[in-house]
Amino acid sequence: MKILVINPNSTLSMTMQIADSARRCAFPGTVIEAINPKGTPASIEGHADEAMSVPAMLDLIRAGEARGVDAYVIACFDDPGLAAAREIAAGPVIGICQAAVQVATTIATRFSIVTTLPRSVPIIEDLVEAYGAGHRCRAVRAVDMPVLALEQDPTTAEARLIREIEAARDVDGAEAVVLGCAGMSDLCDRLQLQTGMPVIDGVTAAVKLAEGLVGGGYATSKIGAYDYPRAKSACVLAQTA
């Protein structure tokens, strides 16, 4: 089984960290490839960054289809371009937010999410609502640090994450916490050990879900909305003298 993990931003060091997290949890027979596009934003922090990252990400999926990739993981918590990616892929395409939310609602009755910047809070709230879990999500919290600061200042990032996870438990009444950024995946085990809370990393959740779907023989439906895009000829505007 071959899973292509795509970090939609262009930061190679984050891609390598995501790849390590994915490989640690994968079954021995699973081949994990991790890649990021070139020319996309260095981090994805809002709708504009999402939009700029999607075309290059779709190109990587098209290339993966030609190479026989079995499933794809979109390793950004905003799940950018998820529906479009499912249109062009035969196998499952898993967004790490949707995967993490599905795990959270399976192992706990109530959960909170801890993300990076406050501006990401409404984006994630809308996603959780779209995934049908708005009534189960107690809060979306932010550590108020840019995405790239997670690796530039890991000590501060970890301290703030611990503080927000404890607040999710003590203030929100959450029974589990979801890490709302792929760049946090390498901290998951330590955060769980230090807080005593179940901590869910979307990268791990997405890889395991992808393995399960491929192993079970499930592919992306091509009846209706996720059907392959229709071929269209280029529209040429006539020029007038």
Automatic annotation (TrEMBL):
Bilayer-crossing regions: none
Organism: Gemmobacter fulvus
Catalytic activity: D-5-benzylhydantoin = L-5-benzylhydantoin; a D-5-monosubstituted hydantoin = a L-5-monosubstituted hydantoin; D-5-isobutylhydantoin = L-5-isobutylhydantoin
Pfam assignment, any one: Asp_Glu_race
Matching InterPro entries: Asp/Glu/hydantoin_racemase, Hydantoin_racemase-like, Iso_Racemase_Enz_sf
GO molecular function, a single term: hydantoin racemase activity
Enzyme Commission (EC) number: 5.1.99.5
UniProt key word Cell membrane: no
Record keyword Cell inner membrane present: no
Alphabetically ordered keywords of this record: Plasmid
Domain of life of the native organism: Bacteria
The protein, known as: Hydantoin racemase
Family recorded in the similarity comment: Belongs to the HyuE racemase family.
Leading EC class: isomerase
